[in-house]
């Protein structure tokens, strides 16, 4: 996989961020029609088929530790997607992504063990309180289910990061990711079948399936490819800073695709999370370490 050298690496990462968040906004239109699990099954089904065709992973010759790693990776991936898509049924996508983003942010701060990063996480926590409206809306009116699902997605995202790195060490190229996608599909498939019984097979129209294909391309195939290309020539701190823009891009996608608007207090909370993420994932990253492309 190659790309012209004149295409700046930061532009590739921004393209990946925009692709992921607009894919998420598109997925939010599917959730009311076929449910969160049904939407995840569509996304993972198409993405898994593409990855299996490209990676052609070996099913034999792997150690027990390697299989445990890829199973943990797949479970984290499946639950992350399921919880996040579930949160979209209750929260605007900008709110859901901002809350979910605290997972990798907290993981990075804990691993760094720098007091400054822990303070940044505290600032992000305040931002989450603001954007979730936990301080301004009566408890009975608070979207507690959506907030809990977004937090669960964040925890799973942290697990995804840990096991993704381990899978990259155990498997060559894209093999680990492809096998983990199969595991993720198996995790969410029973819930997807349940959603079929709830919403009915008639909900799975040609337009819905095509939308699912679009979500798979925007949320999985395209962004992963762009990030893979960018990571070959981009410092870790720049990559982290660009990824920190995800909550803001999610809010933009929610506005453009879904007509979702956030109030000034929520936008202020999002700014806190983005700044904290920039400090931990970007400015706090070791500039001398080039990220791995695995």
UniProtKB/TrEMBL annotation:
The keyword Cell membrane applies. It is found in: Cell membrane. Keywords: Cell membrane, Membrane, Transmembrane, Transmembrane helix. The chain crosses the membrane at residues 37-54, 66-85, 91-111, 118-140, 146-164, 176-194, 206-226, 238-259, 265-285. It comes from the Bacteria. Coiled coil: none annotated. It is a multi-pass membrane protein. Belongs to the EamA transporter family. PANTHER family: INNER MEMBRANE PROTEIN YTFF, OS03G0707200 PROTEIN-RELATED. This is Inner membrane transporter RhtA.
